């Protein structure tokens, strides 16, 4: 009876493993942009094949926007520490805005929103790279 109430839980690892990167969030953001470009290239959805490709592209966009959000949250909650906030006082707001932007990409099929996500993720990636420098 208890089995039906047990749900799988997913996390980065919380060991902490020390393995953090921004390639996956960059890939997620650029994939969202590329899927929107593919959707725009479809033009009129005047065939079953085009409709199918539209649905597939939207599903991939949604999946990668969520992966982007998840990766941002891991960096925010697990990688960045108080000493990073001292060096980068804009850190919380930068990551918060990037996660909000990933939500906007999920809510729309907008090239402008996807481009804004790519830019927001690049900003987070730059802070991450700078945090590695002494």
Brief overview:
The chain is 72% helix and 0% strand.
Characterise this structure.
This protein is an all-alpha fold. The protein contains five helices and no strands. It has one domain: Four Helix Bundle (Hemerythrin (Met), subunit A) (Up-down Bundle). The chain has helices at residues 23-42, 48-79, 82-87, 91-107, 111-132. The mean pLDDT is 92.
Question: What attributes does this structure have?
Answer:
Four Helix Bundle (Hemerythrin (Met), subunit A); 72% helix; 134 residues
Shape: globular
> Would you state the CATH class?
Mainly Alpha
Shape-level CATH architecture: Up-down Bundle
Query: How many beta-strand runs?
Result: 0
List the helices and strands and how they pair.
Elements: H1 23-42, H2 48-79, H3 82-87, H4 91-107, H5 111-132
Helix pairs in contact: 1-2, 1-5, 2-4, 4-5
